[in-house]
Structures are given as C-alpha cells and as structure tokens.
Amino acid sequence: MSQQGSAGNVLAAVASLFFPGLGQLLQGRILAAIAFFCIVGVGYFFWVLIIPPIIGAIFHLWSVIDAAKFKSPA
C-alpha cells in the first residue's frame, strides 16, 4: 500500500469490518491480525458478561481504523 487512503487501504478496512484482523492480514501484518482477531473474538465470545463485548466492539472498530490509516514503512 503506497499511502493512506489508497484503494488497498480501503479494501483492507472493509475486510476488517466483516472479519476483524483480515485487513491487517491483507496488508501483511500477521501479528496485528492475530491480535485483533483474538481480542475481538474473546470479547464477542463472552457476550453475556456485557463488558467484554464492549471491549470487543472497541477493538473491532480500532482494527477497521488501523487498516484504513496504515502507511507502509518503505
């Protein structure tokens, strides 16, 4: 991805919207993808406890924003 707002970043953000961490995976950031997927998955898994789903939703939104604003270091 060349710059913020590029088509690749938009595609990554849309992918993260449907599946948390997928946008980071498309950008080649494997550790970030695993972290977002695990945190959001655990948060949504414990939906009965009220607080974990809120944390999961916050991290889900963060994964979408992170994928959209990513700038390649090169």
Structure description:
The protein is mainly alpha-helical and 74 residues long. It has one domain (7-69). The protein contains four helices and no strands. The chain has helices at residues 7-18, 22-26, 30-45, 51-69. The chain crosses the membrane at residues 33-62. Keywords: Membrane, Transmembrane, Transmembrane helix. This is YqaE/Pmp3 family membrane protein.
Largest sheet: none
Helix and strand succession? HHHH
Average pLDDT metric: 88
Range of helix content: over 70%
The residue ranges in which pLDDT falls below 50 over 5 or more consecutive positions are none
Q: What is the terminal-to-terminal distance?
A: 10 Å
Would you kindly provide a brief summary of this structure?
The chain is mainly α and 74 residues long.
Characteristic terms for this protein:
74 residues, 4 helices, elongated, transmembrane
Explain the layout of strands and helices.
Layout: H1 7-18, H2 22-26, H3 30-45, H4 51-69
